[in-house]
Amino acid sequence: MARNITVIPARANNMNLAENPVLKKVAAYCRVSTDLAEQASSYEAQVQYYTSYINGHTDYNFAGIYADEGISGTSTKKRDQFNLMAQSL
Questions:
Q1: Residue 22 has pLDDT above 90, yes or no
Q2: Is the pLDDT of residue 60 over 60?
Q3: What percent of the chain is helix, strand and coil (3-state, nearest 5)?
Q4: How far apart are the C-alpha atoms of 44 and 65, rounded to whole Å?
Q5: pLDDT at 58
Q6: Does residue 89 surpass a pLDDT of 90?
Q7: Domains recognised in the chain with CATH numbers
Q8: CA–CA separation, 44 vs 56, rounded Å?
Q9: Cβ distance 78 to 72 under 8 Å?
């Protein structure tokens, strides 16, 4: 049995992207699994890195850093910031 295929051609975008860039809404999620002091620096490094990275891109709209500290990664039930991020974006 032959399939009926409809080709939908691409439309030209009349906007000049150099004058009107399309910003991507970008957020980061940072997490460490324990409250141990040695992981606190990892957590802080993640927040600092992603904040700097996102703000360093002119085509990104910084939507925030969402972070859960000392929360297990086995379930999203107790990861409040992760769930907030998922609902917000």
A1: no
A2: yes
A3: 30, 20, 45
A4: 11
A5: 92
A6: no
A7: 24-88 (3.40.50.1390)
A8: 18
A9: yes
